[in-house]
Design brief:
Layout: H1 5-55, H2 60-65, E1 69-70, E2 78-79, H3 82-113, H4 116-128, H5 134-152, H6 162-185, H7 189-197, H8 202-213, H9 215-230, H10 234-239, H11 257-268, H12 274-303
Helix pairs in contact: 1-12, 3-6, 3-9, 4-6, 5-6, 6-9, 7-8, 9-12, 11-12
C-alpha cells in the first residue's frame, strides 16, 4: 500500500510532537515538584532572617535560658522562651496520654478483630475526626470539656492545660489509629496463622506478634502525632489561655508557642517592634521542634522496620 505525501508529513509531525511532549513532561514534573522545595526554602529563609533581626535586639542567652516571658511589660520586656515551651509540653503530654492508648487500641481492633464490613464503616468514621476544624475543637474544649472537668475538680481554672490537652489528644487519635492500622495490616497473614496454629489466642497474636512486627510504623505514627500536637494552634488559643508560666501546674492558665504567635498576629504589636520580631523567633523554635520530631520519625521507621 502506497502512502501519500500528505500522510507522510502528518506522521512526521505526529512523531515530532510526541518527542517534544516526551521531553517536556519531565521538565513540567520537575517544576511542579520544585514548588514544595522552594516553598520550604522560602519559609526557612524568612524565619532565619527575621529571627536574626530579633536577636540583634534581644540576647540569645536571655531567650534560650530565661524563665520569664513578659513581652508586653511596661517596665522591662522579658523574652525567656521556656514558659512557652513548658506550656506547649504540658498540652502535648496530656494529648499523648489520651491519644496513644486509644489510638493503638483502635488500630488493634480494626486490624485483628473487626470484620471487613465493620472496618469499611468504622475507619472512615474515625478519620472524620481529622476533618473537623480545629476551632470547633477549641470551642468544644472551652464550653464542654472544661465545665465537665470543673464539675469534678473545682480547682481547675476556666483556662487550663488539661482541657486543651484532652481535646488535642482526641484530635490526633485518627492519625495514630489509621497509620498504626496500616502498619499492622501490612504484617503477613502467615505469621498470624502460624501463631494461631501453635495455640496462641487472638489477643496474644495481636499483642505479641502483630504489634512488635509493626512497631516501626506504630512509633512513627506516634511521633508524627506528637509533632501535630506541638503545632496545634486554635485549640490551645481558645481553651489554654494566654498566661505563660514556668511551673508544673496543669490546672491554671498557660500559653503555648502557637498561642503566642496568634496573640501577636491579631495586632497586639506594631510592625517592626521587638514583639513583632519575637513571633519569628518563637516560630523558628517551633520549626526546630517539628523538624526534630520528623527526623526522629524517619529514624525510628528505618531502625525498627521489619521486612518480609
Amino acid at each position: 500500500m502506497r502512502t501519500s505525501v500528505q500522510e507522510m508529513i502528518a506522521q512526521s509531525k505526529g512523531k515530532k510532537n510526541k518527542k517534544f511532549m516526551e521531553k517536556m513532561i519531565p521538565v513540567i514534573l520537575f517544576l511542579i515538584a520544585s514548588v514544595s522545595v522552594l516553598t520550604t526554602i522560602g519559609i526557612v529563609v524568612t524565619l532565619v532572617i527575621e529571627t536574626i533581626t530579633f536577636f540583634t535586639r534581644v540576647s540569645v542567652a536571655d531567650f534560650l535560658f530565661g524563665t520569664t516571658w513578659l513581652p508586653f511589660s511596661n517596665k522591662q520586656e522579658l523574652f525567656g522562651i521556656w514558659p512557652l515551651i513548658i506550656g506547649t509540653l504540658k498540652v502535648t503530654l496530656i494529648a499523648v496520654i489520651v491519644a496513644v492508648p486509644i489510638g493503638i487500641a483502635s488500630a488493634i481492633y480494626l486490624s485483628e478483630y473487626a470484620s471487613e464490613t465493620v472496618r469499611r464503616i468504622v475507619k472512615p468514621v474515625l478519620e472524620v475526626l481529622a476533618g473537623v476544624p480545629t476551632i470547633v475543637y477549641g470551642f468544644f474544649a472551652l464550653t464542654f470539656v472544661t465545665p465537665l472537668l470543673q464539675s469534678v475538680f473545682p480547682e481547675i481554672k476556666i483556662f487550663n492545660a488539661i482541657s486543651p490537652g484532652i481535646v488535642v489528644g482526641i484530635m490526633i487519635i485518627p492519625m495514630i489509629a489509621s497509620l498504626s492500622e496500616d502498619a499492622m495490616s501490612s504484617v503477613p497473614k502467615q505469621i498470624r496463622e502460624g501463631a494461631l496454629a501453635m495455640g496462641s489466642t487472638k489477643f496474644e497474636v495481636a499483642w505479641k506478634i502483630t504489634v512488635p512486627a509493626a512497631l516501626s510504623g506504630i512509633i512513627a505514627s506516634i511521633v508524627l502525632a506528637v509533632s501535630r500536637a506541638i503545632g496545634e494552634t486554635m485549640i490551645v488559643s481558645l481553651a489554654g489561655g494566654s498566661t505563660p508560666k514556668f511551673n508544673g501546674d496543669f490546672t491554671d492558665s498557660i500559653q503555648t508557642m502557637t498561642a503566642y504567635i496568634v496573640q501577636v498576629s491579631k495586632g497586639d504589636a506594631g510592625y517592626g517592634t521587638t514583639i513583632y520580631y519575637s513571633i519569628y523567633a518563637v516560630g523558628f523554635t517551633l520549626f526546630i521542634f517539628t523538624m526534630l520530631m520528623n527526623i526522629l520519625a524517619g529514624y525510628v521507621s528505618k531502625r525498627f522496620r521489619e521486612e518480609y
